[in-house]
Every structure is written in C-alpha cells, then in structure tokens.
Amino acid sequence: AQKITQTQPGMFVQEKEAVTLDCTYDTSDQSYGLFWYKQPSSGEMIFLIYQGSYDEQNATEGRYSLNFQKARKSANLVISASQLGDSAMYFCAMREGGAGGTSYGKLTFGQGTILTVHP
Amino acid sequence: SQTIHQWPATLVQPVGSPLSLECTVEGTSNPNLYWYRQAAGRGLQLLFYSVGIGQISSEVPQNLSASRPQDRQFILSSKKLLLSDSGFYLCAWTRGSGANVLTFGAGSRLTVL
To answer: Judging by beta carbons within 10 Å of its beta carbon (0-12, 13-18, 19+), is residue A14 exposed, middle or buried?
Structure first.
C-alpha cells in the first residue's frame, strides 16, 4: 500500500484565492512527522511546513497551514491568498518513527500535485 | 548559515560510462547526508544515507554507490551507467538531532543516452 497518497495530479486556483492540496498517509507508528515541500520548475525542493504526530495544534507558516486530521490520517496543505509564484509541484512526505538520528532525513514522498495559479 | 552545494547541475552521459556526482555542506559539522532520486514526474526515492565518514547505508538495490570521504562531502557514483539511471538526483542534509527539516541541494539532472 502507498504510504503517502496525493490524489490530485493537478490543481488550478485563481490568484488571491485559497487552495487545499490533499495528502493521506499510512503508518502504524505512533511517532511520525509530516512535511510539505514545494518544487518549482527549477527543481529545487523547498521546505514549507512540518507537523509532528504529537502536535496538538495545526502547523502554520505564513500563508501555509497544515490541516492535520490524525484519525483520518490526512495532512492537507492549505495555501491562502495564492500568488502567481505559488505555481509549482507540491510534495507531501512522511518520516516514520522517532525524530532522532538518521530517521530525520528518511522521508517517504507522495507523487506530488502540480498547482497552477491563474491571474 | 548552512549551505549545500551539488554539481554538476546537468550531465548527459552514454550508457556504460562512469558517473560521479558531488555534494558538499558548509557551515555545519557531522551532518546526516542523503541521496534521493526523482524519476520524471514522480516523487523522490531515498537511495543512500550516511551518518559519518565512511558510513553508508543503501535503501534500494541498484547500479549506484555512494561514498563519504570527508565529513561534509557525499559522492554518488556508478561504474557503468544504465538507461534507467536517468533522473534528477538530489543531495540533502539534516542535523544529527534537534532539527526536523531535511534541506536539499539544487539537484543534478542526469540523462543517460
């Protein structure tokens, strides 16, 4: 079974509108972390936001927020007030197990969602 | 501040030729280092990771190898490239503890012809 599922191959949003990118995950670990990365056409991977499995509050970073629903195993990314520069591929990723040692960097990625922001 | 450098940025190689991609991290010591590969239009797959000089762990069987000759240097190699080795290779690092973010380099795009 897929550990990270992003069901939206592509999404379109009007500039200044909000958009939600879906992500569901599958793990039997109690301790895990969820990440969102942005990949523009240049290819670099840009970290956006992180949510730990024990964090009670949804993570927020500026215009980005992570809608964490633990029971449903979903970690959707919400981008508010979309900008043209938000057009990119977005990846959801998961780190399983405790946050120590090498597990920090051992992430499982979804297939990504291409977001296009229209003017 | 910490920075991560990868080179070359792009590479076109014939089948059967060798490969060497290099990655260095500046501004930190004893980082955990990682090589990921991204096939066209796909997510990233972890290939190798290293917790210290000379310590390499492989995540998937493949035609590639990795080495860490110095604390902040990570090298991805192949003796004979296959067509299936084409892809976008990303080096990344994290601290050994206390940080949750995996930081990536700019990537190296490899085309095997």
So the answer is: exposed
Backbone angles phi and psi of B100, in degrees to 5: -105, -5
For A102, phi then psi, to 5°, come to -75, -15
C-alpha neighbours within 13 Å on the C-beta side of residue A19: 22
CB atoms A105 and B106 under 8 Å: no
**Residues A31 and A53 sit within 8 Å (Cβ to Cβ):** yes
B104 contacts: CB under 8 Å, gap ≥ 6: A37, A44, A45, B4, B36, B90, B91, B92
The predicted pLDDT at position B60 comes to: 83
Triad B53, B55, B56: Cα angle to 5°: 125
Per-residue pLDDT reduced to its tens digit, B92-103: 998 766 566 899
Q: And the tokens for B69?
A: 């000759």
Local structure of residue B64 (DSSP, 8 states): -
Say whether B44 and A91 touch across the interface (CB within 8 A): yes
- CA nearest to B48 within chain A: A106
